[in-house]
Amino acid sequence: MFVLDNTVLSPDRAFTHPESGVQYPSNWLRLATAAEREAIGIRELPDPPQWDQRFYWGYDEDGQLIPKDHTQLVEQWAATTRTTANTLLAPTDWVIIREADNGKAADPALKQWREGIRQASGVKIAAIAATMDTTALAEYITGTEYPAWPTDSYAPVPDADAGDVAADGLEPVGDGEQG
User: Fold this and answer.
1) How many angstroms separate the CA atoms of 14 and 76, rounded?
2) What is the dihedral of CA 131, 128, 52, 116, to 10 degrees?
3) Are 67 and 132 within 8 A, CB to CB?
4) Structural domain boundaries in the chain
5) Is residue 179 within 8 Å of residue 101, measured between CB atoms?
6) What is the pLDDT of residue 29?
7) Which of 23, 36, 41, 90 lies at a CB distance of 3.0 to 4.6 Å from 32, suitable for a disulfide?
8) Is 14 helix (H, G, I), strand (E, B) or coil?
9) How confident is the model over 81-128, as pLDDT tens digits?
10) Is 59 helix (H, G, I), strand (E, B) or coil?
11) Whose CA is closest to 81, among 7, 147, 166, 2?
12) Which of helix, strand or coil describes residue 91?
């Protein structure tokens, strides 16, 4: 971080020296040597510490992280997990609805994939709810313990004789009748 007279300078913005009135172009800080910056009074300081804004408000005056409300974060992350699961399941919902409506059996691989999504969601939500504080929640979400969603996506295979699955595998097609 570059500082001139207690003003933080952005590396890619033009600035005017407050005492001399000299204007510097936007690329000057990047192109200038340390000696050139020092000569006009610019100090280079370490960047302030970063924090994960999903879980913390920032640092207090003692340098300690200020956590966000754990209860609200648990609700937020559980809702986000449910939304993600529903988003993954939605493109194949029609196959399950068709099975319930007219008995056309859904592919067992589809049902297994959908169950994997639901199980992954349940595991994630249970682990989120089991965290005792914001730090534990942040460690779970950002760590290696946070399970990945099933990576093998499902694409229905069209029936050779029925021709009832569109090329994208998501919409029924045909003469207007479903399944």
Assistant:
1) 41
2) 150
3) no
4) 2-44, 52-179
5) yes
6) 94
7) 36
8) coil
9) 999 999 999 999 999 999 999 999 999 999 999 999 999 999 999 999
10) strand
11) 147
12) helix
